[in-house]
Structure formats: structure tokens, C-alpha cells
Please model this.
Amino acid sequence: MNSIKWTDEMDSLLGSKQDRLVAEILKLSPITIFKRRKLLNIQPYRDHIKLDQKTIDMLGTVSDAKISRIAGASTYLIRNRRIKLGRPPLKLGGPFPSPLRKEDRNKEIHRMRDEGWTLQAIADHFHVTRQNIHHIIQRGY
Model:
């Protein structure tokens, strides 16, 4: 087992950023960072990001993970803000079922893909997962 020689500089990063970011900087696993932080009784980093109104309006209509990528905040922060505002999470498969029949929807998906839409963009449009779109295109329906 490879023992890590922790320096004061490495320890100073603990709790200053999300564990996964510290792990990337130090080229260590996030669990290693977590364990070291816990051993030294260092509290985890908490986001102090102010969300703009456009981002707040997306809560509950877009997945928490997608909003966290857009806003540059943790999924934890986004989830907690959504809950605090009393908004339910986005349900994949959608709160907005497609008004198209299945065959028409699949034709539309193929048309969009032929026009250069990404799988994720099509999935977001129909409120389904990217994998659902991938299967529809691969199976040819």
C-alpha cells in the first residue's frame, strides 16, 4: 500500500474547496481527501454561491445535477435551495408528457438528430434521459 506523505500545504487545501476538487489538485482519490479531512476534524467546504434569478427559476424544471454544472455550484447546494423553496425535483419521463404519438415522437427524435442536435439536447426537449434517446436512435424506431 502506498503511504501518502501529507504536507502542511496539502492539509491547508482541506475544507477550502469541495473534496473532489482538492482530490483533482492533489491527484488523489476523493475518499482519501475525505478521510484525511475527517481525521483532522476539518469541516467540509460549503458553497457560498449566490444564485441568480434565472438559475432559481430553473429549480424543479431541470435536474439538480444539470443546474449545478451550469451554476458552478454543488448538487448539494442546488438540492437544498430547491427544497427550501418548496419545489419538487424534476421527474424524468417528465412533468410534461409529449403530446405526440410514440411513432411521431420517434420520427421527431430522428429528425432532430439528423439536424445535429445532441442526445442530451433532445432528451431535455422531451424530458427523458439521454440513454432513452440513444436507445430509440439505435433501435431505429
About this structure: The chain has a mean pLDDT of 85. The radius of gyration is 21 Å. The chain has nine helices and no strands. Residues 102-139 form one domain.
